[in-house]
Amino acid sequence: MIIIENKQALKQLLDTERSKGKSIGFVPTMGALHAGHASLVEQSIKENDITVVSIFVNPTQFNDKNDLANYPRTLEADAKLLETLGAQIAFAPTAEEMYPEPDNRQFEYSPQTDVMEGPRRPGHFNGVCQIVSKLFYAVEPTRAYFGEKDYQQIAVVRRMVEDLQIPVSIVSCPIVREKSGLAMSSRNTHLTEEERELATNIYRILSYSKFYATNHSVEETKRMVTDMLNALSGLEVEYFEIADGITLQSITSWEQTDNIVGCITVYCGKIPIRLIDNIRYK
Ligand code: PAF
Description:
Blueprint: E1 2-4, H1 7-19, E2 24-29, H2 35-47, E3 50-55, H3 65-70, H4 75-85, E4 89-91, H5 95-98, H6 117-120, H7 124-139, E5 143-147, H8 151-164, E6 169-173, H9 193-212, H10 218-230, E7 235-244, E8 260-268, E9 273-280
Parallel strand pairs: 1-4, 2-3, 2-5, 3-4, 5-6
Antiparallel strand pairs: 7-8, 8-9
Helix pairs in contact: 7-8, 9-10
């Protein structure tokens, strides 16, 4: 596996591969790789001739400076993991390489960006679209792989690809969970053992809500999930929305659509760590 920091060098290498008819799979990441990322890389390796993984902590998608500063950076371990998995290229550019000039483009994909993470993390999806579009232009992948834990991100990226007419197919991959059910996340490293245990209640209660939903309304199901989690000391629900899986707009009845997802954000622990998760109802 080779590590490339420069867009031009990456392009040269990939142009050569493309000219031989090779397909390119791409997994964009911010590093601190875990089993969730590994599953995306494995799927890309299965479905493409060449797999490129980007490792770049994108400053424009953080609306909290501390969050950016504290984001784990583990390039050496990440490169080892990618080597073991069999990825061919790690693209690890500097911020200057990706943003030689400030990116003034504005992306707003209503209604998907209007809800949940959108208003709570102003500028976040704009930053995601800025970097993902730049990465797509640099890699020109055949397919790009995203984890369903960031459900809203996939919906926004799909809108962006359509809007900018980028010829890439977006592949969404199931959430990878720890044995306890906790969704894998780079942020889990900030949890103490006790908090990690506490956080397992998120998936436990979301899973229970699927049964609860069979004989309760959307409103009752939302309330049950929120109340049960908030009753546990050390957990605080920021939001739990039951929404249309495409538009991400809240629904009021289970009959409203065939594609329903419940998206949740919960603060966990003394120095609260923001955890997100989701569950599919249909
Ligand atoms: O999901 C992430 O890790 C990031 O938002 C992404 C897609 C790599 C863009 O920085």
